[in-house]
């Protein structure tokens, strides 16, 4: 499981990343490594797009 921003950036199968992976990496960066800037990058570049895409999919399904 990817543990840091670097691990996620280097992860070969980005399509296989799950919210849990990103969440754990954010927690690890902040709690264990005190790397707030890396956690913010994970949040804005990886987690937010997943959440937005999921909200759009739900809205599209509701509209159909």
Q: State the secondary-structure class.
A: mainly alpha
Report, as a whole number of angstroms, the end-to-end distance.
36 Å
Q: Summarize the main sheet.
A: none
Low confidence ranges? none
In total, the number of domains comes to 1
Order of helices and strands: HHH
Number of helices: 3
The average pLDDT value, as a whole number, equals: 93
Strand tally is: 0
Beta-strand percent range: under 5%
Percent of residues in helices comes to over 70%
- Broad shape: elongated
Rg value: 13 Å
Q: How does this model look, in words?
A:
With 64 residues, this protein is mostly helical. It has one domain. The protein is built from three helices and no strands. Helix 2 runs antiparallel to helix 3. The longest helix is centred in the C-terminal third of the chain and has 28 residues. The radius of gyration is 13 Å and the shape is elongated. The N and C termini lie far apart (36 Å).
Summed up, what is this model?
With 64 residues, this protein is mainly alpha-helical.
What keywords describe this structure?
mainly alpha, 3 helices, elongated, about 0% strand, single chain, about 60 residues
Helix and strand arrangement:
Blueprint: H1 5-10, H2 19-32, H3 36-63
Helix pairs in contact: 2-3
């Amino acid at each position: 499981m990817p543990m840091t921003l670097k691990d996620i950036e280097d992860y070969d199968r980005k399509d296989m990343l799950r919210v849990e992976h990103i969440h754990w990496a954010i927690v690890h960066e902040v709690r264990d490594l005190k790397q707030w800037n890396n956690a913010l990058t994970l949040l804005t570049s990886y987690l937010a797009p997943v959440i937005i895409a999921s909200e759009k999919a739900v809205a599209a399904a509701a509209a159909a």
